[in-house]
Specification:
This protein is an alpha/beta fold. The protein is built from seven helices and 13 strands. The chain binds manganese (II) ion.
């Protein structure tokens, strides 16, 4: 039987993961391994400095005191090692994961990890808006996964799905949009007179054709194929003056110790 590993970054008690699991369990055996509390914006963090605990919450539901990436590792390499999942799904996240923000996203990073482990992976996020509900995203997830499971899946399949609030106008294959950096850091004083900082601000997006942001703003489900190769290929050419300079460097057998500039 087809097996799907589900995780998220909102925590195992979030509504979004319950509905995703319920929706996909009509198609496959679903096993949930998810953080025991919210881990949003933890990115692709992996816990190496302490042991991790996995607690059975109910049949096929396990809570981990770690990140979404930890959960995928424990799920694939420990809990399900005898029969690894055919698909890793993450979400449904409370809020969109668009454009440049995918690198902050624990939801999307869980699917990076799934793909690194050789398992096709899909992330689902739902826009928060008027009349909010996870139902449209859960229904779309079931229909997308049904199509995926009906085909030979490429091992490097990595999809980032964002579902708009309100009535869905269709589905678009998209590229990642670019954020306009309007983020701000607020500086205040705590009750003891010490400074503290809070990262704040509402993300703004460049209006560009074919992006995930554009699709969602038009009421369309955005499906973005991703890959993990962060190489900037044009740079291999455009940075050739730098490459030339570096390639003319010579390297002494005993490099000099760094010296501080005179005071
Ligand atoms: Mn989240």
């Amino acid at each position: 039987m087809t097996r799907i590993l589900i995780t998220n970054d909102d925590g195992i008690f979030s509504e979004g993961i319950k509905l995703l699991a319920a929706s996909l369990s009509t198609l496959a055996e679903v096993v949930v391994v998810a953080p025991d509390r919210e881990q949003s914006a933890t990115g692709h963090a992996l816990t190496l400095s302490r042991p991790l605990r996995m607690q059975k919450v109910e049949e096929r539901w396990y809570a981990v005191d770690g990140t979404p990436t930890d959960c995928v590792n424990l799920g694939v390499l420990a809990l399900l090692k005898d029969k690894p999942p055919d698909l890793v799904c993450s979400g449904i996240n409370f809020g969109l994961n668009l454009g440049d923000d995918v690198t902050y996203s624990g939801t999307v990073s869980a699917t990076f990890e799934g793909t690194l482990l050789g398992i096709p992976s899909v992330a689902f996020s739902q826009e928060v808006g008027e009349g909010f509900s996870f139902h449209a995203a859960a229904d779309f997830a079931r229909r997308l996964v049904e199509v995926l499971l009906g085909e030979e899946l490429p091992r490097d399949l990595l999809l980032n799905v964002n579902v708009p609030a309100g009535p869905i106008q269709g589905v678009s294959f998209t590229k990642l949009g670019r954020r306009v950096y309007k983020q701000s850091v607020i500086e205040k004083l705590d009750p003891r007179g010490r400074k503290y900082y809070w990262i704040a601000g509402t993300p703004q997006w460049q209006r560009a054709a074919g992006t995930d942001f554009e699709a969602v703003s038009q009421g369309r489900v955005s499906v973005t194929p991703l890959h993990l190769d962060l190489t900037y290929y044009p740079g291999l050419e455009s940075l050739s003056p730098l490459r030339e300079k570096l390639s003319s460097l010579t390297f002494p057998a005993s490099p000099p110790a760094p010296t501080s500039p005179p005071a």
